[in-house]
Amino acid sequence: MGDSARREHKIKCVVWDLDNTLWNGTLLEDQQVTLFPHTLATIKTLDERGILQSIASKNDADLALAKLKEFNLDDYFIYPKINWNPKSASVEQIAKEINIGLDTIAFVDDQPYEREEVAFSQPKVLCIDAREIGQIPDMPEMQPRFVTDDSRRRRHMYQSDIQRNQVEKAFTGPQDAFLQTLAMVFTIAPAKEEDLKRAEELTVRTNQLNTTGYTYTYDELNFFRQSKDHLLLVATLDDKFGTYGKIGLALITCDKTVWRIKLLLMSCRVMARGVGSVLINHIRNEARRHGVRLEAEMLTNDRNRMMYMTYKFTHFTETNKEGELIIFENDLSKEQKFPDFLQVVTD
Length: 347
Prior knowledge:
This protein is an alpha/beta fold. 32% of the residues lie in helices and 26% in strands.
C-alpha cells in the first residue's frame, strides 16, 4: 500500500479530502454527489476505534458542510478545514488544534498532486490514495491494540473540549474564575483490572506529557496493580460538560524507606485545566503520610519539557543521574493543598 506499508506508528487522526475522495463528484460542479461505497463503513469503523477524523478540502465551506450534514456525517469530523489554502497548511493546523504529532496523522486524497504537496511539506504525515479507502481499516496503523470505553467516546470528548474552549474564549475574567465555573471533579484511585487497557493505551499514546516515556503492556500493568511493592494510580477528570475520561497515570515503586515515581503522565487535553500538579501533590501527601522519601525519574527530551517544569514547580530537586535519567527528590516537609477550583476525590 505504498507509504503505509513502510510506516509503523499508530494513527490518531485521519484527515479526509472531499471531492472524489469522500464522495463521487465535484461539489461545485454538481451538488448531487454520492458517497463512495466504502466511505460510511470506514468512517464508522475508525470512529469506533477511537481514531479521530477531520477534513482538509479545497471547497466552498457552506456547501460542503451542508452536504456533510445531508449525509449525516458532519458530526464525525472535528476542526474541519474547508478553504482554498494548501492542504499541508490545513493538516498542520488540524494537528495543532487537536494537539497531536504530525506523525500520527493520515491524509486521504484522490489527487497525486495534493498527496505529494502534503508529503513534501509534512513528511511525517502518512498519505493514502483515496482508492484505498476500503482497505484503510485493515492497515496496521489503524488498529489499536485495545478499544476501550475512552476510545469509543474519544470524538465526543474532543467535541466537549471544543465547546469548553468556546465558552472559555467568551469568558471575561481571570483563569481561576473560569475554572471555578467548570465544576471539575478529579478522581485519583488505584488501578482496577478494568482500567488496564486504557492504562496501556495511555503509555503508548501520551508522548508530550510523559516523564519517562516508558510503555507497559496490559500484563505488566496487571502485575504492578497486584504487587505490594508498587502503586499504580489512575486519574479521571469530569466537569459540567461531561467526562474527559481516564487522563492520568502514575507508577510508583514502594520500598520501606523510599518511594520512586517511575512513570507519570497526563493527557495533553487537560493541562490547560490546571490539574497538572494535582496527581503529583496527591503522591507527595501519600509519601509523607507513609513516612518515606519521595524520588522521581525523568528522561528529558524536546517533547516533555512541560513535565520537567511540572516537577520543578512542585518542588522536586535534581539529586543524581542514572545514565540518561535525571533523579529528583522532593521536600515533603509540608502537606500540599489542592486548588480550590476543583474537587479532588481519592480512594
